[in-house]
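Researcher: Checking consistency across runs. Here is Maleylpyruvate isomerase family mycothiol-dependent enzyme again:
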Amino acid sequence: MTKAQIVTTLIDEWSSIDTLLADLPTEQWTAPTSLPGWTVQDVVAHIVGAELGLSGKQPPIQPDVSAYSHVRNEIGAVNECWVEWMRSQSPAEVLRRFREITATRAEALTAMSEEDFSAPSWTPAGQGTYARFMQIRVFDCWMHEQDIREAVDRRGNESGAGAELSIDEITLALGYIVGKKAKAPQGSSVTFNLNGPVNRQIHVAINGRAAVVPSLPGPATASLTMSSTVFTRMAGGRIPTDVGFDQTEPKGDRDLAEHVAFALTFTI
């Protein structure tokens, strides 16, 4: 994707979250989400904190965050420091901070040169480029918008550029998921049929190393048909795997299909 496409998609994603939050009743900001320990307000605070960090701000020190069972690593501890800092603030204040930092970041990203945008950078997926990092930001923000929508029962924005890019992000992990985590045997293949709101057919072949391929020479060893919503919620660990698998239509080698489904979660 070009810089313009990535930046536009990220800005549009922030706008969709803003629209969702704009008329959200105060009591719904305390609704629990599928993320352990986080309410709707905590999810918004996490997005705010991530963008504040990217703008050069340091998280306020919160010495007790490691006591939370959902904080499992250093990145999680940094995230929780921002969230903890905003827990005592009102929803209106957190929304103000969201609008302020996303406007600042939108301006900075738009003004950034192509050279700087393509420069080497750390990313949550390892060393990459700043452009790659911003693609991951789209995925993270889109997934968190869906966390909020699920918590307050307001479905929306499940298709379009943000959703498509997010499924691209999951697709990058499917070789590892099918080959390494699910231990699909050599010579086998798996097809994911996503039947909306985003429609995709994704093939993984295990020939030496498992990899996503454009097509297969014949029917897959196992296939899983599901909505793109179930696919993304399972990949993000947002719903129990057995619940997601119950909403999936497996064909072919059922044991392989089940192993793949139960290995699908990959986010930290």
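Researcher: Does this match what you'd expect to see?
Model: One thing to look at in this run: Residues 42 and 87 are 7 Å apart (CA to CA).
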